[in-house]
Design goal:
alpha/beta, six-stranded parallel beta sheet, Quinone Oxidoreductase, Chain A, domain 1, Rossmann fold, 4 domains, 20 strands, globular
Length: 653
């Protein structure tokens, strides 16, 4: 099939790559009818997103028809027209169950990589670097869709691709950004950036009840679109460089109630800090240019909200956190929980309340993607959003036609396929016949699907990839079979499992930790020998409590009596930790008074007292004090270091 592949900074190519295959029961294969270039794709195009590899397939906004469905997908049928959310979510983890779909625990096979950068892994994304899972993107003729029973939304007849495609990202992102502002009647919302996401944020803010929306950009066509379709007031920062002062003037000195950063990590500006950002980003001393975010924080009224819809992936500099803190601002941000908004937005589109189709200013064939990227990056006049149509180009039509003819043949009928069609290289070399079965692999009489996984390049599994890079232990690599067959990949332990969640979930980790802690507590309780520095020479806490009369008689009866095999310990001297001394100050005062004092007379009968047999005799409190006084006096007579020079005798003592 044909696909748009990344090969370096500002270098994308349309190449012939392997078609995707069903890898897991919850997968589906979607034939793309429409896809588009997102503004966040330009961050990859310009080289600011790490962990990209040559040949990675780009794109995360796409829709099409389901042509193959895994055995675990019951809500889709072959032929269904679907829009696919750009976030990949399992639907079962802690976050998916709470509607935070872009934070899914189980969909990023490279979770270990994201955890080192972000602390925790977000959900996997289509076509957005190996940090986000390494999934093949939607700027292609076909896409493998993991968790197809959760993500894709079926589209009814009567709606065009232009009307519904942007539900997959741009419309949902703009709507979530406006919703995060908690808009109240009479509120003023300022939006930085009038690209596609900014336009949808403006339209959504108006829909949610904002009294005024102020759009900020420097491209006249975009500002005009914001006025015409969103009813926004506008600020051209190329003409009014001090955007913060302009917003104060427009809001009677108070500032907007909420501010939306719809620009992200490649913000432009005409001020000194914007130039500073361009220099630092050019030499990779920061990964983002937060000029728009700085202005939003400065301009927002006290107690207002900052909603960040623009993408940030790394480190930014000179963010005025002091202003945000002292004004009591609320910051909300994150990848869009697309699945949460898809059905409500579809209803709005069907009802005519929101129609995003006006954003598409250009329509081009998939083979024209390199030119489309260059035009979009250059912000050419009139370029807002380009729709890429795989069927518009001459490339790939013959292969699709052969595929459709094969699909029309009766199930289980052996068919002959060309070299570029279905079947693994091993199957083609052996002459094995491939069955035309579009849905369930592994049924009797069908061949297993071939190996290629665009999420992992040409690697058969994640484990092999890690072993080749020296990132796995020798023991783990030794367990891998020398050469795996497609059947082993489908049925064995090495499923390349974005969709299967081979990584443990957070819930499983917490549950295992609780079980370990409970087992350790039970072990210590069984031994009944909990050490305590505060108990001096006492053997256990239980004995000490019994001697002080602080434990119930039943517990004291359970303790071993004297004469048991366990060694019986003698009484011990008092300890400050047990509270028999009043305070440290009184103890020191007694030391001072004890110097030169005669020992007190013995208590009547004390001399005749004989300690029980086998029990050691310990000094009294007074003897312990006298011994400590003697040691202090001896130490005072020894040579002191230079820290004591200049001190009189009393201070030294």
């Amino acid at each position: 099939m044909k696909a748009v592949c990344w090969y370096g900074i500002r270098d994308v190519r349309v190449l012939d790559v392997p078609e995707p295959r069903i890898l897991n029961p919850r997968d589906a294969i979607v034939e793309v009818t429409s896809t588009t270039i997102c503004g966040s794709d330009l961050h990859i195009y310009d080289g600011y997103v790490p962990t990209m590899r040559q040949g990675d397939i780009l794109g995360h906004e796409f829709m099409g028809r389901a042509v193959e469905v895994g055995s675990g997908v019951s809500n889709l049928r072959v032929g269904d027209r679907v829009v696919v959310p750009f976030t990949i979510s399992c639907g079962e983890c802690f976050y998916c169950q709470r509607g935070m779909w872009s934070l899914c625990d189980n969909s990023n096979p490279n979770a270990w990589m994201a955890e080192k950068v972000f602390g925790y892994t977000p959900a996997g994304l289509y076509g957005y670097s190996h940090l986000m899972g390494g999934y093949a993107g939607g700027q292609a003729e076909y896409v493998r869709v993991p968790f197809a029973d959760i993500g894709p939304l079926r589209i009814p007849d009567g709606l065009s691709d232009e009307q519904v495609l942007l539900i997959s990202d741009v419309l949902a992102t703009g709507y979530m950004a406006a919703e995060a502002c908690d808009i109240q009647p009479g509120d003023t919302v300022a939006v930085w950036g009038c690209g596609p996401v900014g336009q949808m944020a403006i339209r959504s803010a108006t829909h949610l009840g904002a009294a005024r929306v102020i759009a900020i950009d420097a491209v006249p066509e975009r500002l005009e679109m914001a006025r015409q379709h969103g009813g926004a007031e506008t600020i051209n920062y190329a003409e009014r460089r001090n955007v913060v002062e302009a917003l104060k003037e427009m809001t009677a000195g108070r500032g907007p109630d909420a501010c939306i950063d719809a620009v992200g990590m490649e913000a432009l500006g005409r001020t000194v800090d914007a130039l500073y950002d361009r220099i630092k980003q050019a030499v990779r001393l920061e990964t983002g240019r937060p000029h728009a975010l700085r202005e939003a924080i400065q301009a927002c009224r006290k107690g207002g909200t900052i909603s960040i819809a623009g993408v940030y992936v790394g480190l930014i500099d000179k963010v005025p956190m002091g202003a945000a803190f002292n004004k009591g601002l609320t910051l909300k941000m994150g990848q869009t929980h697309v699945q949460k908004y898809m059905r409500p937005l579809l209803d709005l589109v069907r009802g005519g309340e929101i129609d995003p189709s006006y954003l598409f200013t250009h329509t081009m064939g998939l083979d024209e993607a390199p030119q489309a990227y260059a035009m979009f990056a250059a912000r050419e006049a009139g370029m807002m959003k380009v729709m890429l149509k795989p069927e518009m180009g001459a490339v790939g039509d013959g292969r699709r036609a052969r595929r459709e003819r094969a699909m029309e043949q009766p199930v289980e009928m052996p068919i002959s396929l060309p070299e570029t069609g279905r079947g693994s290289p091993a199957q083609r070399e052996s002459g094995a016949r491939v069955m035309a079965r579009p849905t369930q692999w592994g049924a009797e009489g069908t061949e297993a699907p071939p190996v290629p996984s665009q999420a992992e390049g040409t690697r058969a599994t994640i484990e092999e990839d890690l072993c080749e890079k020296g990132l796995s232990t020798p023991e783990e690599c030794a367990e891998l079979p020398a050469e795996e067959t497609p059947e082993q990949l489908v049925t064995g332990r090495h499923l390349p499992s974005q969709a299967e969640g081979e990584r443990e979930t957070v819930e499983e980790t917490l549950r295992a930790r609780e079980e370990r802690d409970a087992a350790e507590t039970e072990r210590l309780a069984a031994e009944r020998r909990l050490p305590s520095q505060a108990e001096g020479t006492r053997e256990t806490v239980e004995e000490d409590l019994c001697e002080k009369g602080l434990a119930p008689p039943e517990e004291c009866e359970e303790l071993p009596a004297e004469g048991d095999d366990r060694t019986t310990l003698a009484p011990h001297p008092p300890s400050q930790a047990e509270g028999e001394r009043e305070t440290v100050e009184e103890d020191l005062r007694r030391l001072d008074e004890g110097a030169g004092m005669e020992p007190p007379p013995p208590v009547v009968g004390e001399a005749d007292a004989t300690p029980p047999e086998g029990e050691a005799e310990f000094p009294s409190v007074e003897e312990s004090v006298r011994e400590r006084v003697r040691r202090v006096q001896e130490e005072a007579e020894e040579p002191r270091d230079t820290l004591d020079e200049g001190l009189d005798e009393e201070e030294t003592r």
